[in-house]
Amino acid sequence: MSRISVRGFAVASATAVTTVGAVVGVAAGGTPAADDNNFEAAAADTTLLADIPAGQQAQVQTASLTQQADAQASAADAAAKKSAEESARIQAAKDAKSKKQAAEDRIEAERLAEKKKKEEAERASRSSVRDASSFAAQGSYTVAQVQAMARQMVPADQFQCFSNIVNHESTWNYRATNPSSGAYGLMQALPGHKMSSAGADWQTNPATQIKWGLSYMDSRYGSPCGAWSFWQANNWY
Questions:
Q1: Which helix (H) or strand (E) holds 69?
Q2: Contact assessment for residue 237 and residue 221, using Cβ atoms and an 8 Å cutoff
Q3: pTM, 2 dp
């Protein structure tokens, strides 16, 4: 069999195509043709497509074009697969980012809702308390009466802390006096006359003492519960 090579087509027989591309020779008996470096030498010993019988040229061209089409289809499939994988990766990243943002937005919304709820509760609690001046003065008060006044004056969420301090300081005795220091009243104010800032009747009116005690705890510790936390750590406030 003669060695045949055609620009764009290479044949090992009159009917079989072995390579598509530049000039490539196929030796008789199946020996590989020269590589691209020997292009000129191989071309010198080749037969042009025009030298192949006309009836066989169409078969050679058809087989070669089929191989080219298969190669192009394979390349296109690979490119499409790569593009699809990249698109999927990008979409997955976008989805993950969207889910993360949605979760963060939900947490923030819940935090704001809880904060609003707490603020509304605090406002409601403050609006429900009575001022010291709303209580009629009496000659004396029982512990139960003093505690009832405090419940009406101290915000509900702060009352237990306030009560804890008063229990430790005076056991709810509005006339309690420390003979050594001079501390006086429910909160054992030192000196006692500091409570005159809340009212001139600070010595005899527990409502005035409660008013002063609330103001003191709020200004110094932020709240009665803040004062109670300090008291627990130091045994004074």
A1: helix 54-128
A2: yes
A3: 0.49
